[in-house]
Amino acid sequence: MTKTCYTPWSPNADSLQVVTWCNEIVESYQKQGYDLTVRQLYYRLVAADRIENNDKSYNRIKRIVGRARMAGLIDWRAIVDRTRHLRVGNRFRDPAHAASVIRDAFKLDRWEDQPCRVECWIEKDALVGVISPTCYRLDVPFFSCRGYTSLSAHWRAAQRVRMANVDRQSFHILHLADHDPSGLDMTHDLIRRFKTFGVEANVWRIALTMEQIEEYDPPPNFTKLSDSRSPEYVERFGNRSWELDALDPAVISGLVEKGIDDFCDDRIWEDMLEREQDMREELDGVVRELER
């Protein structure tokens, strides 16, 4: 836990209550191995019926959480910004260290012998950190569409589909997006573009669905009527919409894991893990030689 005071603050009773609620949520998620964005924390407070769901309330939470962190009242490591990353190249102490890093990171393409390829595409950068542990563990590529997928990213995906089809593998994309006029259309847009690029990819919307909304009851927002797709959406679903961020991170992770498991042949997976372990042991011998 990292609580460091940089700017002293004496919150009033209402603000202190919010800080207490935030810490309860933070500590609960840390025990599960999750961190949170401010927006995710906000939705957890809304879902717990602690605060109202509107822009004024969200801006208030941002202010309070920011001041509380600066005052050392909320763990710095608990709240993250998933959209800004420091990038640095690999560095090693010596050849033995480099070999040990390769050994520990060594992994075969675990989907090479599977009958299909799977990728996970999510609408928002802020949620990449929620799905990444599951995707890394199950060796599934993933990325943030950042709304509608760019032409460049989609064209490259079409080339991956072609390569998979050449290897007689079907190609499946698990898509997660908001349940709002644009969020629903984003899934259909993926399908339309793959057809335009002349490839066959199966796009599965695994979140957010109306069934999940009924099951998990995330807090709603008013549908943005400025969205040109809103009339059709309102006719089908009414004037409420729901953000993916409002789902519990553990729920999102679970949906991704189930979606991937549906396409994975367990026997082929176990065989690949055994081959991988044999090769890692070979690398272990190299590391021991270099450490002498």
What topology does this entry show?
Elements: H1 13-31, H2 38-47, H3 55-70, H4 95-105, E1 116-122, H5 128-137, E2 142-144, H6 151-166, E3 170-176, H7 181-196, E4 202-207, H8 210-216, E5 221-222, H9 230-237, E6 240-241, H10 249-261, H11 266-291
Parallel strand pairs: 1-2, 1-3, 3-4
Antiparallel strand pairs: 5-6
Helix pairs in contact: 1-3, 4-11, 5-10
Counting DSSP E segments of at least 2 residues, the number of strands comes to: 6
Structural class: alpha/beta
Question: What name is given to the CATH topology of the largest domain?
Answer: Dna Topoisomerase Vi A Subunit, Chain: A, domain 2
Placed side by side, the strands forming the largest sheet appear as: 2-1-3-4
Topology as a string of helices (H) and strands (E): HHHHEHEHEHEHEHEHH
Large-scale geometry: flat
- Beta-strand percent range: 5-15%
> What's the gyration radius in Å?
22 Å
Would you write up a description of this structure?
This protein has 292 residues and is of the alpha/beta class. The protein has two domains: 13-78; 115-264, Dna Topoisomerase Vi A Subunit, Chain: A, domain 2, CATH 3.40.1360. It contains eleven helices and six strands. The chain has a four-stranded parallel beta sheet, with helices on both faces. A two-stranded antiparallel sheet has the order 5-6. The radius of gyration is 22 Å and the shape is flat. The two termini are 38 Å apart. The model has no long low-confidence stretch (mean pLDDT 93).
